[in-house]
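wait is this the right file?? whatever heres the structure
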């Protein structure tokens, strides 16, 4: 009881980063495995009518990491479910006509293990780091964004007001970018853009830019 209350408090006070770290270390493997089994069970033949010609992308790993990979296996591509024309569609964090897992493919770059000083000028920020050498030293690293951003921690006056950023937020039926204030995402150093235009440009968040997924891409046979 006391532990549960403590965890709740930690989640509330420590914010998303601490909660993410905590749940990542405790529950992720079990959750991924359960989700993998559920998605296989849910994807009955005929549930989605994508009978693709090889090559295509299919789920290749369910636990502990969720991955999609390219296959030339005509049986897998033609089975009509859990087969996708692109890796983006296979990895999209939604489930149904696209996406294998509600949580998407494992995002290896997103695992936050500590927070360090980010930008010093003109704005002051903290950024997540997963570098072992950085996170294991006994100075200049904090367990959460809030701790890092507190006055006197990474910056004398604390972090300045955090700016939002734009990231890919949907893959089908249209590729779009959405705004987020999550600094774990904005400061991660990849796939986050200062404006919707930059995010939507071809080769940025989506290799083909924002827009409707064209019919040829989700080819039906
Ligand atoms: C294609 O996948 C099916 C189903 O997993 C498997 O039974 C078959 O052996 C595979 N074919 C080839 C050529 O690998």
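ok assuming it is, sequence goes like this
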């Amino acid at each position: 009881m006391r532990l549960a209350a403590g965890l709740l408090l930690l989640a509330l006070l420590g914010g998303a980063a601490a909660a993410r770290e905590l749940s990542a270390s405790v529950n992720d493997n079990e959750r991924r495995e359960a989700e993998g089994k559920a998605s296989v069970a849910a994807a009955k033949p005929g549930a989605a009518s994508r009978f693709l010609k090889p090559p295509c992308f299919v789920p290749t790993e369910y636990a502990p990491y969720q991955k999609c990979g390219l296959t030339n296996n005509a049986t897998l591509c033609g089975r009509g479910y859990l087969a996708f024309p692109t890796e983006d569609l296979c990895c999209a964090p939604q489930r149904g006509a696209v996406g294998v897992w509600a949580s998407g493919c494992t995002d290896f770059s997103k695992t936050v293990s500590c927070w360090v000083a980010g930008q010093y000028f003109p704005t002051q920020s903290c950024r997540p780091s997963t570098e072992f050498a950085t996170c294991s030293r006994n100075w200049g690293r904090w367990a959460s964004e809030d701790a890092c951003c507190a006055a006197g921690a990474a910056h004398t006056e604390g972090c300045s007001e955090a700016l939002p950023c734009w990231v890919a937020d949907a893959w089908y039926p249209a590729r779009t970018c959405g705004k987020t204030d999550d600094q774990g995402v904005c400061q991660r150093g990849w796939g986050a853009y200062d404006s919707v235009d930059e995010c939507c440009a071809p080769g940025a968040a989506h290799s083909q830019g924002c827009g409707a997924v064209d019919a040829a891409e989700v080819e039906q046979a």
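Residues 1-27, 41-49 have pLDDT under 50 and may be disordered. so i think its the right one actually
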